[in-house]
Amino acid sequence: MASSNPQSAAALEQTVNSYRQNANETIRAASAGQITQQNADQYIQRQEQLVQLSQQIIAGIRPQQKADAQKALDLVASNLNQITRQNPETIRAQWQQGAAYREAGIDANAVNNSSPEAAAARDSAIQSATSLACLREFKQTGNKASLDTARTQLEQAVAQIARVAGASGSSRAQASAGAR
Questions:
Q1: What residue segments make up the domains of the chain, in order of their start?
Q2: Inter-residue contact 45 to 139 (CB < 8 Å)
Q3: Pick from 165, 160, 155: which is nearest to 76 by CA?
Q4: What does each C-alpha distance from 52 to 18, 24, 49, 140, 145 come to in angstroms?
Q5: What is the mean pLDDT of the segment spanning 113-128?
Q6: How far is it, in rounded angstroms, from Cα 44 to Cα 120?
Q7: Rounded to whole angstroms, how far apart are CA atoms 7 and 157?
Q8: How far apart, in whole angstroms, are the C-alpha atoms of residue 132 and residue 151?
Q9: How confident is the model over 154-160, as a mean pLDDT?
Q10: What is the pLDDT of residues 31-57, one digit of tens each?
Q11: How much is the pTM?
Q12: Cα 9 from Cα 129, distance rounded (Å)
């Protein structure tokens, strides 16, 4: 996929690795009970960085995607800052359950099937935004369920982002595997 421009592939890989590292640090802290209402701001800042990295990942893979996948990525990218200001329930209804895509005339399931890398980048961006919203909610309310949801969303985002990392270098691997 990104084999035509190795510098872009390297930049994408670096962005994905940075995303994974930052997300995993927050996941570890949440799992160890180290995130409190008093120190939540540092993790909120980290989540804001993950949202920015998500934007970069979307921009990095967009040119190689099919038209329907590009529309889905464009919709997420153009709304991501607004999404981060929504509450977790609204994000779930609008973005994770697909209402925003349906309203825009985008078949999210078709993107899932035809462009798994785009679907993974899209989903990890939405999950990053959801995690950010949950951390903000935790800071305000102290509700541990919000913190647990933030961690779960990040774990899912890391799993999704691995698909982007795997896809960016997998075309050569798949070609060589097929030649065996």
A1: 2-172
A2: no
A3: 160
A4: 11, 16, 5, 23, 25
A5: 95
A6: 22
A7: 25
A8: 10
A9: 95
A10: 999 999 999 999 999 999 999 999 999
A11: 0.86
A12: 25
